[in-house]
Structure formats: structure tokens, C-alpha cells
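Issue 218. Parser rejects a valid record. Input:
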Amino acid sequence: MSLPSAAAFARSFRSLPLRLAGVGILSALLAPESAEAQARVAVPPAAQQVDAAVLPLPEAMRAGATVLGYRTAGKLETLRQGSNGMRCLADDPTDERFHVACYHDSIEPFMARGRELRANGVVGAQVDTVRYAEVVSGKIVMPKTAALYQLTGPKGDYDAVKKAAPQSKPLFVIYVPGATTASTGLSTVAAVGTPWLMFPGTPKAHIMFTPSM
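Output the parser choked on:
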């Protein structure tokens, strides 16, 4: 079995910050569509979005998670308030793939700021440039550690009857802001069977895990 490169995982993970992204995270995660185009997009029922959004989490954690989703395409809002400190993002109906992600509430300020910046037209690396500066200034407070879980697959992969996304691939992340190889003993090179560190030394440094481990 071959393992995608760290760069490939970075492209997948980039979807998270777009919405988170982020756990992105999200993108981790895609330019916004026009308001007219978004209005034509069918938005699944809130209950279906909630069921799909919590799929990345361990089963015991799903019922207590807060879920953000869509009542109107393009407008992310709270669909369910949770109680266990985890926050999940429903699949964006305007996205060209199926993507859901869940992360600890402690990293929400960083994720929410990414969404805000992109909504205001900030793009690419400039989003992190702004966020990193705000972490340094104390405007954004990062946690010591925070978990993120995600599923990514083809558009329409979620089966509302079976409550499953059979073709979607999981990814697990532990944020460790500022971490480096020297401080953790983790390599920054992706390898089969081991965790590795991405974006070392930055506010969004995180340990990557894959199911093959």
C-alpha cells in the first residue's frame, strides 16, 4: 500500500480551514459561488446534515457534538448545540465533494477566523499570515492540544438511509501549536505506519494519523 505524500495530505487538509476549514482541519477547505448559484443548490434536511457531520467522530462522542450546517446554501450556522466540547461541520452542499469534519471547541477561534477572512476576500497563504500574526499578538489564543477528525469522499457519497459514507476516507489530526521535530521527536516526512508532523513551528502544527497505522 502506498501512502500519499505529506504534500498530498496538505492539499486534502487545506479544505478544512476554508470552512473551519481548516481541521482543517477543514479544507481544509474553493471560491464561494455567487448568491444566485447558491440559491439553486438543494440543502439537505438539518437532521440529515447532523447525522452526516458527526460520522468522523468515535461513536460514543457523536450525540454530544455541536453541529454547524446549512439552512441556506452558503450560510453556515448552528444546527444543533452540543455538550461534549466537540464541534462538527456539515457537508457544504455547494462543494464538489463530500467533506465533513469535527474538532475540539478550543481551536474554534482559529478556525472561525479563517472562515471570516475568506468570507471577506482574503485568499491563499494570506489567511494564515493574518492568523499567525493574531496568534502572536494574543488576539487568537491557541490550545496546547486539540483533536480533529475528518471524512472526505466523492460528491453524494453519504447514504442517508444507512447513515454511512462508504467511499470517504478518514484522517485524524492532533493540533500541537508550535511543535517541532526537536520538541516532539516526530518526523516531518510522511511514512507508512507512523504519525508525522505537518507545519512544524507554526500555530497550526499538527500530528497526522492515517487508518493504515
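Fixed in the parser; the record now loads. The chain has one domain: 6-172.
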